[in-house]
Amino acid sequence: NQYMDVVTTLQKTIDDRDSKLRQITDSSLKDRCETINQLCRTYFETTHSQRQQTIIFNEVKKLVENLSSDSYLATIENCINQYCDNLLVQLKQDLPELSKREYQLACFICIGFSTQVMCLVFECTPEILYRRVYRLRDKIRHCTSKHKAKFLKYI
Questions:
Q1: What is d(CA 74, CA 104) in angstroms, rounded to the nearest whole number?
Q2: Residue 154 three-state SS
Q3: How far apart are CA 86 and CA 78, in angstroms?
């Protein structure tokens, strides 16, 4: 009986540590995207001179091109899998019918990119993006995966 108490205490300690670690990593993932989000917001909202707009435009264009690359997607994917308990590995296994764009959208939502960033990357309007997100979440809601709740939490 006292051994069970020790095991229970140890398990609670591990669970608390894991919970704190998840909170820190979730926050860290979102912080990494804040620079890109801010730059894109500035681009969308800018009312400065033509020269400043051109400079901002060129910077955003470089960022968007980088975000669209397979190597950047792989970096995001590894980070999400590392800190979110192999979320994307499970998503690929449980929903292999997702298109590359849907998968990329799931990654960008998980990492915390803003609507503006995703619209620039996918070259679409916010309305179209919202429909794509809805369809992605709908596919997840209708899947039979045991990880469905976890997918919906992050996506």
A1: 10
A2: helix
A3: 9
**Euclidean distance between CA atoms 60 and 45, whole angstroms:** 13
Residue 80 tokens read as: 């999400």
**How far is residue 31's CA from residue 3's CA, in Å, rounded to a whole number?**
42
Query: Looking at residue 23, what DSSP letter applies?
Result: H
Q: How buried is residue 19: exposed, middle or buried, by Cβ count under 10 Å (0-12/13-18/19+)?
A: exposed
Residue found by looking up tokens 């095991």 in the block: 7
Given a contact cutoff of 8 angstroms between Cβ atoms, the answer to whether 38 and 113 are in contact is: no
Burial of 83 (0-12, 13-18, 19+ CB in 10 A): middle
Q: How far apart are CA 106 and CA 136, in angstroms?
A: 8
Helix (H) or strand (E) holding 32: helix 2-45
Mean pLDDT in runs of 10 for the chain (155 residues)? Answer: 71 65 59 69 67 74 79 85 89 95 93 85 93 97 93 91
Q: How many residues does the chain have?
A: 155
DSSP secondary structure, 91-130, as one string: HHHH-TT--HHHHHHHHHHHHT--HHHHHHHHT--HHHHH
Nearest of 86, 101, 105 to residue 145 by alpha carbon: 86
